[in-house]
Amino acid sequence: MLLLKDEELMELINYEEVIEWMREIFEAYQLGKVVMPLRINMEIKERDGTLLVMPCYLKGEEEALSCKLVSIYPKNQFKDTTQAWLLLFDVKDGSLLSLMDAKYITMVRTACCSALATKLLSRRDSSLLSIIGTGKQAKAHLEAFSKVMNIEELKVYSPNPEHREAFVKFAEEEFNFKAKAMNNALECLDCDVLVTATTSKEPLFDGSLVKEGTHINAIGSHSPSFRELDDKVIKKGKIVVDSKEAALKEAGELLIPIKEGIFDERIIYAELGEIIIGKKKGRERDDEITIFKSLGLAMEDAICAIKLYKKIKR
């Protein structure tokens, strides 16, 4: 059994490769080559904890069987609040092939899904990027987006002034971008591409102020009661999701207004894979607002697990 920790995975993982892996898996999903139950979410109320279970089976050339386990304990003081492991099994006999630290894999594959969506849905001349949030996901998105768009200017916002200044320094030193720390989320809306990577329970800004032609990647929440975007921007945007089934169970941006009768599930225009295989069109006009709502799917972990396992075995 092969044990892979984050330190080793950082050496193995290439963002451009992972973007292509994400394209492969979303296409496979549309072609019926993925067996993927909805994420199991078990609350441990006595300990204020949560356990997520994410199994997946991939058919075809990249046949794989995997399961990701994620524990979330917000009150942890001496251990990470989120811990994750990815198990890869031998499809032939069910034996465990590899146990992988999943924190870095999750961070990268999430960013690469957003990068893929941005490549398909943003305007071709997009060069102004804004990120709301300054955590590890925000940094991973910056790396992934540098592979799919010509970033001329970056705007970043966090409620914590030290965090946003540190992020600006990171962006300038690592990528040589022109970067600015903004004083509020609204100042980030003057952009071509926007990433929301927060744990906010409430909308981050007034959606009526989003510029025509903007592409938004909303990746911060996967809870029915959390949302980063309000009804205004959802109603006027072209909504693309990673999975309709998952979105209609976990995406607060959709579930809250649907429950309130503001719109119904037909507000979802397409799954990302439908655009990849040409079943649905992506951006059709420069003035469209496009929105990719990402929940994070087990198949994204499964394709990374089998690709990385084969890579190291070579």
Q: Can you walk through the features of this model?
A:
With 314 residues, this protein is α/β, with parallel strands linked by helices. It has two domains: 2-105 and 299-313, ornithine cyclodeaminase, domain 1 (2-Layer Sandwich); 120-297, Rossmann fold. The chain contains ten helices and 15 strands. It has helices at residues 6-12, 15-30, 103-121, 136-145, 161-175, 231-236, 244-250, 252-259, 272-276, 298-313, and strands at 2-4, 34-35, 40-44, 49-58, 64-72, 82-89, 96-101, 128-132, 153-157, 178-181, 193-196, 215-218, 238-241, 268-271, 290-293. Helix 2 packs across helix 3 (103-121), helix 2 (15-30) packs across helix 10 (298-313) and helix 3 (103-121) packs across helix 4. The mean pLDDT is 96.
What secondary-structure arrangement, pairings included, does this model have?
Elements: E1 2-4, H1 6-12, H2 15-30, E2 34-35, E3 40-44, E4 49-58, E5 64-72, E6 82-89, E7 96-101, H3 103-121, E8 128-132, H4 136-145, E9 153-157, H5 161-175, E10 178-181, E11 193-196, E12 215-218, H6 231-236, E13 238-241, H7 244-250, H8 252-259, E14 268-271, H9 272-276, E15 290-293, H10 298-313
Parallel strand pairs: 1-7, 8-9, 8-11, 9-10, 11-12, 12-15, 13-14, 13-15
Antiparallel strand pairs: 2-4, 3-4, 4-5, 5-6, 6-7
